[in-house]
Amino acid sequence: MTLSPDRVSPSTVSLEACETYQKQSYRNRAYILAGDGVQMLQVPVVHQESMRISEVQVDWSTPWLIRTQRALDAAYYTSAYYEYYRDDLFAVMDARPALLWDWNLSLVRFLMEKTGVASNLAPTASFVAPPVAGPDDFRYVIHPKHPDDVLSTLGLERPYYQVFSDRFGFTPNLSVLDLLFNEGPDSLLWLKKI
Questions:
Q1: Among 22, 43, 57, 77, which residue's beta carbon has the most beta carbons within 10 A?
Q2: Cβ 150 vs Cβ 79: under 8 Å
Q3: What is the 3-state secondary structure of the chain?
Q4: Distance from chain centroid for Cα 157
Q5: Residue 156: is it exposed, middle or buried by C-beta count within 10 angstroms (0-12/13-18/19+)?
């Protein structure tokens, strides 16, 4: 990742397009805060041996998309901005791309647009192993099977309002959708402060 000097002009973020798909990673899952606690949303994929991340197919044989959209409705219908973003988000989801890569890229672009993050996305042309990649390589830092204390370790964890904070307090490590639905246009201000 290369940040612009003023962090306002577009930066370039390299997206790993050549790695082998990793099962049980954030490549096909996200977490939201629902009325009964943290809930995982997962995009099912067609499992094959040693597939490049950019070649993994989404498994559309089950009604997972409807369940995901209903879970989002149930979790965020009372949030301040969900109704404002819902139709645009569902339009992105309803496009039903064949590849997980295209699904993720369309969601990342949606989130960047709605949060106001200005960045250029550059898919990698070849795989470079982490020890060679450099200090700005975050591909393997955060994983759902490992403790996620990166922000708290750096002293950057900052709470924002969440719909169910009265029940659970602030819940970190959720999808950026949680931030967007609860903070709306102020999401970028919150991101800049960390």
A1: 43
A2: no
A3: CECCCCCCCCEEEEECCCCECCCCCCCCEEEEEECCEEEEEECCECCCCCCEHHHCEECCCCCHHHHHHHHHHHHHCCCCCHHHHHHHHHHHHHCCCCEHHHHHHHHHHHHHHHHCCCEEEEECCCCCCHHHHCCCCCCCCCCCCCCCCHHHHCCCCCCCCCCCHHHHCCCCCCCHHHHHHHHHHHHHHHHHHC
A4: 17
A5: exposed
Dist CA 10 CA 85 (whole Å): 23
What's the pLDDT tens digit per position in 112-168?
999 998 888 989 888 877 665 555 666 666 666 766 676 677 666 789 999 999 999
- Hey, where are the domains in the chain? 11-193
First CA to last CA across the chain, in angstroms?
17
Q: Who wins on pLDDT, 179 or 192?
A: 179
pLDDT in tens, 78-111: 999 999 999 999 999 999 999 999 999 999 999 9
